[in-house]
Design a protein that fits this description.
This protein is α+β, with helices and mostly antiparallel strands and 382 residues long. It folds into three domains: 1-45; 47-206, Sandwich (Jelly Rolls); 210-368, Jelly Rolls, CATH 2.60.120. It contains five helices and 25 strands. It has helices at residues 2-25, 29-42, 126-132, 272-275, 369-381, and strands at residues 51-54, 58-62, 66-68, 79-84, 93-104, 117-124, 145-150, 155-157, 162-167, 172-178, 188-200, 206-214, 217-218, 245-247, 253-255, 258-260, 263-270, 281-290, 294-301, 306-315, 322-325, 328-336, 342-350, 356-358, 360-367. Strands 1, 2, 3, 5, 8, 9, 11, 12, 18, 22 and 25 form an eleven-stranded mixed beta sheet that branches. A five-stranded antiparallel beta sheet has the order 17-23-19-20-21, with no helix packed on it. Strands 4-10-6-7 form a four-stranded antiparallel beta sheet. Strand 19 and strand 20 form a beta hairpin. The protein is globular and about 80 Å long. It starts with a helix and ends with a helix.
Length: 382
């Protein structure tokens, strides 16, 4: 009797292992990376701790170890995330002014190639942030992304005199993801070091509001992976439909992550609804997120038919990847008008012989007059 129980138990275990194995093998490269990273960290196979050091003017967050064991295109690599505070021991108003991310060795000393940095996102909790300033009508209007550093733009700082105001014990959120377009060797490990600079409160500082704008393209929701056809030439081929998928007011399915075919192409998208300008204001900073084989992305005023800024991407000539991406930074700023329409225009050149993936975003920072009025009230009481 006992032998039969043991035999059936073993068979059930083997069946369970097979089911799990089949499930894992059918996962996408991105989801396999999530599973492997969780196993590595939960079992302590690699360093699973964060090294966080804070001073009076910056915070440094060094990630747990991330194992790169495969080719990982943009949005696919191992990643980690956590909430944090600039200084949980204080409730001081400070101004975030600079951002940097870099790949480092597991010894946390040696700097590695930024080819291993896909992106680092910094978010704020809009419920907590805006309620402190009695700006509750902003809560939930847009995803509360403050900024993103990505392959090609791994660091930048706001123009002198500008920043994003937060309290030092305010909750923020960080996620950082690896990248590996080229190296097919034995697995190797990296960490990411993220450094955020901030300044003590000064009454002369001007607040910035972050707006995320990005290109979205239509796809056939009934046959999403069919791509463009003779009858639907404007349909794109989405990378997937579970993430980065949206719908517009007409019920049309859109994606922000799509396939580009070999050769040159141009993509346009009206971002007026993403900007949601309540009033005319000035634009002071733009950080652009692009994938390899992008060449330029412009933000244009459709109403006046003028180009406001062109971000230029420099692709490597001997491997896949972005060597650099230009960004915009200006104390004077560029006017954006409430009653104008704006668009992004992306130029790509897929010089490879295979399909590649593309995303194209801009993190735009606008002078925030409404927040400035709140700060003036704050200054009068402190």
């Amino acid at each position: 009797m006992k032998s039969n129980v043991l035999k059936y138990s073993i068979l059930l275990m083997l069946l369970g292992v097979c089911i799990v194995g089949i499930y894992y093998l059918n996962l996408s490269n991105r989801h396999k990376a999530i599973v492997k990273t969780q196993i590595n960290h939960k079992l302590g196979i690699v360093d699973n701790t964060w090294n966080i050091q804070s001073s009076d003017d910056q915070i440094s967050l060094i990630s747990p170890t991330l194992v790169i064991d495969n080719i990982y295109k943009s949005m696919e690599g191992p990643k980690v995330m956590r909430s944090f505070q600039l200084d949980y021991t204080k409730n001081d108003l400070v101004w975030m002014t600079s951002f940097e991310t870099k790949a480092i060795s597991t010894n946390e000393v040696d700097v590695l190639s930024n080819d291993y940095v896909c992106h680092t996102n910094v978010d704020f909790y809009d419920g907590e942030h805006y309620s402190r300033w009695e700006l509750d009508d902003r809560i939930g209007l847009q995803y509360p992304r403050l900024t993103s550093m990505s392959n090609g733009i791994e660091s930048y700082e706001f123009p002198e005199g500008f920043g994003f105001p937060v309290f030092s014990n305010e909750n923020l959120f960080l996620s950082t993801q690896t990248l590996n377009h080229n190296i097919k060797t034995e697995p190797f490990s990296v960490k990411h070091q993220v450094t955020i600079g901030f300044k003590p409160h000064q009454k002369t500082m001007k607040p910035l509001e972050s707006k995320t704008v990005f290109i979205m393209l239509p796809y056939d929701k009934d046959n999403p992976f069919q791509g463009p056809t003779d009858t639907n030439p404007n349909m794109c081929l989405p990378i997937e439909t579970k993430n980065h998928s949206y719908s517009n007011d007409d019920g049309e399915s859109l994606t922000g992550h799509w396939v580009i075919f070999p050769g040159k192409d141009t993509y346009r998208f009206d971002i007026s609804n993403q900007l949601r300008l309540k009033d005319s204001t000035t634009m002071h900073q733009i950080a652009t997120h692009l994938h390899p084989f992008a060449e330029t992305m412009a933000i244009r005023d459709k109403t006046t038919d003028t180009t406001l800024f062109i971000s230029k991407a420099k692709n490597y000539s001997d491997k896949i990847g972005l060597e650099s991406v230009t960004y915009f930074s200006s104390e004077e700023g560029i006017m954006l008008y409430k009653d104008h329409h704006y668009e992004l225009v992306l130029e790509t050149n897929n010089t490879s012989k295979t399909n590649q993936d593309m995303m194209a975003s801009m993190f735009i920072f606008l002078y925030d007059k409404e927040m400035d009025d709140k700060l003036k009230m704050y200054n009068s009481k402190h």
